[in-house]
Give the backbone structure.
Amino acid sequence: MRPPLPAAYDASAIAAHYYTAEGAAALRGRVASISVTVVRALVPGTPLHMSIEALGPSVIKFGQALANRPDLVGRAIADDLRLLQDSCTPFALADVQRIIREDLPPAAADEVLAALPERPAAAASLGQVYRLSLPSYASPVALKLLRPGARETIAMDSLLARAAAGWLQSLRWPPTASGARLLKPALVAAVDEFFSRLFEEMDYANERANLAKFGALYRPGQPAARALAATARRRRGQAGATVAAAAEIVLPQALPGHSGGRCLAMTWVEGEPLLPRGDATLPPSSLPLVRFGIDATLSQMLEEGVMHADPHGGNLLRAPSRTLSRPQRALRALLRRPPLPPRLAYLDFGLVSEVPLQVREIRARFALGCSRLPSDEPSAGAPLRVSPESEPSGGFRCSL
């Protein structure tokens, strides 16, 4: 009997699943599909994001990462690759309906299917998201569904990548048992780490737990949120009363009653992408929100040790300012307070890393040492600085 695929990444269990006659046939089919896609990608005029999308979720993850690096791939390619963050080809409505029926209790499934639109609000590497209005909730709901076949495709890719990494890692010169390894990095371990994280992303129970853990720190009123607000007040004091610094993180709320193994329901978060499509640089007006994002990342990485580990452009939104009552607006106008700033919304908590205290202490010492370097002479390890560009584009640049 063919062993089942594991729920969590396990290289030995995945190998046992595919090292059968049926599994070997599936692997050959995957290799053939990759080969055909690579050949088609060489045809002039084929959009890069479409070629990467056709290779499957494992490769899409690399495309999403490159979309954040216009300095490496160029502005045009980075903008094309940003389509992989929320505009992949959606899977069929029939598959959506089947997953909902199989995954949710009958009453919840009926309620969702009655409100389900024909097209998703966004589609990415591992799933797609629908915006729903359900009678059970006063505000809109985001329903995320796992892409059919994603687990099987990623499992096969992990086997193929592991075999390639093992071969590369075994290369020696001279080509004898006593020869020195040509490639020093531990490639097999790197492959295992990458695919273990992908398996984590497909575990929606884990994502609900991650969201609860992150929210216990960064929802309004929580300890880390108060510390970030204090940092923003200091920035406002330094910049002057006419500038309002962003000071709040917005998070969705998980809705367990309409969630399952392949469905995850959350409250809908309003917002717009930090970087509009077609632009490769942010305008100077976004600098306060960028500074707040940097402060939030440093807080996660150095202070709290709970870090959102997938902050690409599809998972960060510029959320609207808090809504004030009419008396509150009148009071702010009377006191000549600046308008409330936009807020930073985090989405997709499939990847959340825990940074051990010892690692945080080492990083904090390193950051402190960097801050004492002369700021006018770039050097290895110099701190990241975000500053307005002098070019006509009016964006900003990050320099080391």
Observations:
- The chain has two domains: 11-89, 93-148+203-355.
- Residues 11-89 form one domain.
- The two ends are 56 Å apart (CA to CA).
